[in-house]
Design a protein that fits this description.
Order of helices and strands: HEEHHHHHEEEEHHHEHHEHEEEEEE
Radius of gyration: 31 Å
Largest sheet: 5 strands, mixed
Distance between the termini: 73 Å
Amino acid sequence: MDFKRLLTAVLGFLNITAFTKVDGKSQLTADEEKALKEKFGEKFLTSFKQELADAEANGVDLTIPSVEIAALGTQLQTLNGQLKTAMEEIKVLKEEKAALEVKEDDDDPEKIDMEQSKGKRVAFKPNMNFKHNKVVADFFKNGVMQYSGDDTIDTSELQTEFGKYVSDVKIDILTSLKQELTITQYMTTVPTDKTEWRASQAIIDSVLQQFTPKWTPKGKTTFTPIVIKNFKLKVNVPITPSDIMDQYIGYLYDENLSPEQMPIVKYIVDQLIIPQLGEDLENAMCTGKFVEHEVTQDGVAGSDTEDSMDGLVTVLEALKAKEGNKVGWLLDGITLTSSNIVDQMNAAADAVSPKYKRKKMLIHADPDLILMYQRAYQAKYPNTKNEDAGKLRLDFTNFTFAPVDGLIGTGIFFITPKQNFIHLVSRSVTETKIFMQLLNYDVKIFMEFWRGVGFAMQEAIFAYLPPVEEGSGSTSGSGSVVGGGI
């Protein structure tokens, strides 16, 4: 690096325009030396002082305009901030990696030699010496089921294998859960360790400007942020392993899989828990309304799925009830029917503010509403062929319908950029817990994790909530889609 540029950066960092002169030579104060040493190290300080002395001895002009010092100093502070953030992220990743590492005894026959596998992640392998695995292996080898109920399943062995499986593939489990949801593919995922999250900057919508030789920042927009709540959720599922053996073996037979390819612990997670959890979670994220339940003892029945968190419908209803909100409400007071939905959806698109009309956005909607639109459109324009390869784009707009399973029966739709549509998850994998406990011949499956959904800012939401029916205080589950048949 050119020394004069380095000098400019150092002066900017120290927030000064020049060093003190002693006998015509630049002299750093004790505080200045301390600041440089703490930030860049002893080696940098020594080298900088020597280069400064050499430059002055050689008569190099070290006069630097104050505006350059300020500009480069600002850049340096920004880079320092980015470096700090990167170091924090590296620290989190190291913690997650340490949490996922599995320590095994040296004499474990199933131990994986990472040196032999050259450090690559190796798929989980079940211990075929365990009773439950032997039973299944014998069935596929001899065609005879050799188990006699509870005594054949050693739950402690099952717990050991479950713990190892979860440790090996925890991230895969979380990824498979996300794949079960239709809604999250449309959202921006934000890892956070906060119970409430608020956007700190709006979507940047304009950065270009004419040149002037001054710093004239642009890109920040006035906006109204929305607080998104993050909810702690859990799964408590009791399973009697002996009761599911026949079902498990039947699954292997139908799918042409071996016990090594689909061990029972993987079957319990991937086939019994994750699909149902995905369905429940999508419903909660869409139509949930948090209700606090006080539980004082074990064994009490768990709360309803939709009591666990505030979903998108609840968020939108709360925004609409808030006086002076900045959301763009569409088709207010209009009930959509098969006879008006085509014209009304065109009117809704026209009502989106010009700043957002040019953006390619999705119309997140109740699937029944989309079906009604498709049938009505086909009836109105029977000779028009869909040229969008299965996608349904609203004519002459940049908006495409996107069905959300969790919104079925609500009759709502909303349009917003993906950057504004937020899905909160735990910042660290270690915050998500998946484990098994034993109870006689039964096992208990536990999961604990965080989720939150919402929008970053009000001005980028364009939403339709159907009129509330008489005697109903909520859009959620109101069955507002009418006239679906053509």
